[in-house]
Amino acid sequence: MEGVKLNHDARSQILVHLKQARFLTAKQLAELMPEVRNPKLVADGKTLKPHLIKNRNREMPPTYTRTKAMLKNMAADGLLEEPDRDHPQQAFLWSVKGVKAPENYYNRVHDQTVADLYVKYFNATGGNIYWDVRWPEDDKKEYRIDHYGVNYDARMHLQDKVFFWEVEKGTKDITGDRSLETKVDKYIRFSQAYPDERFTVLLTFASYKHIKALDRLKQTLAMLAPKRRGDQFLVALEDKVLADPLGNVFLSPVDPSQAKALTAF
User: Fold this and answer.
1) What angle do CA 80, 81, 84 make, to 5 degrees?
2) pTM recorded for the entire structure
């Protein structure tokens, strides 16, 4: 992680990850910390076997049980919030003390997807990214964010480039009032006000009820093309990004026929 040194203390790692991603499940944290910690196993070069949840046929990361126990202990020690959920099939969203997870179901799904992206890019890059989900107060004032209304779902620095993530779950119209286009236009005005601050906006799409993600992606490409912003806005299907974060999964309105990796733009 750029600018952040992860030491070998698991509690410290958990706190760092939660400060970056804001909310993470026990499974996501276990995926971020998959290493063997038993000295004898380390000396023998052994790896842990996947954890299988009984009666659910679900394979979890090898360190899942250990991570879950550690999270409960950290909450008991006052370092983390005690998470809550509406039903047993819903994952607990863990967070540092003072940061409350959303209660709304759709907000929880959205935030869990943003956290999935963090996990995938952190692991795919060996931790060589910067990540946050809210403007720091000094940046917020410097760039007049309240005026421009640009509030990303996540900000990522990767290979000296800045990316703003916008995770679309199918609840916004593509055009019209309070639409995805409204959000895009805010980014354009922000970019015009700060032309030296180069960034790329990444829009991901997931299906929602009867709405197909691919249809929304194509509609968004059609909306972006007349704006002539080059490769400043890239689109992708959520499932493809999560499956292959550094692969050829992003499309540009400049040439929507050829999917490329982030590093290619």
Assistant:
1) 140
2) 0.89
Greatest Cα pair distance in the chain:
61
Q: CA-CA distance, 143 to 160, in Å (whole number)?
A: 20
Is the pLDDT at 21 greater than 80, yes or no? yes
The residues, ordered by sequence, that sit 6+ positions from 31 with a Cβ below 8 Å of its Cβ are: 61, 119, 123
Tokens at 71, concatenated: 């999270």
| DSSP, residue by residue, 182-209 | HHHHHHHHHHHH-TTS--EEEEEE--BT
Q: How far apart are CA 56 and CA 66, in angstroms?
A: 19
Parallel, antiparallel or unpaired: strands 154-158 and 161-168: antiparallel
Element (H, E) at 235: strand 233-237
* Average pLDDT score over residue span 65-72: 91
CA 70/CA 74 separation, integer angstroms: 6
Residue 257 burial (CB < 10 Å; 0-12/13-18/19+)? exposed
Nearest alpha carbon to residue 113 among 201, 234, 21, 187? 21
Evaluate if residue 41 carries a pLDDT over 90: no
3-state secondary structure of 13: helix
User: Which has more pLDDT, 61 or 77?
Assistant: 77
Q: Phi, psi (5° rounding) for residue 236?
A: -160, 160
* Helical ranges in 25-156 per DSSP H: 26-32, 39-44, 64-76, 105-124, 137-142, 145-148
Output the six-digit token pair for 53. 């949840």
Rounded-to-integer distance, Cα 20 and Cα 13, Å: 11
Whether residue 130 is predicted with pLDDT greater than 60 in this model: the reply is yes
For residue 87, give both structure tokens: 């039903």
- Residue 137: which residues within 8 A CB-CB, separation 6 or more? none
CB 23 within 8 A of CB 94: yes
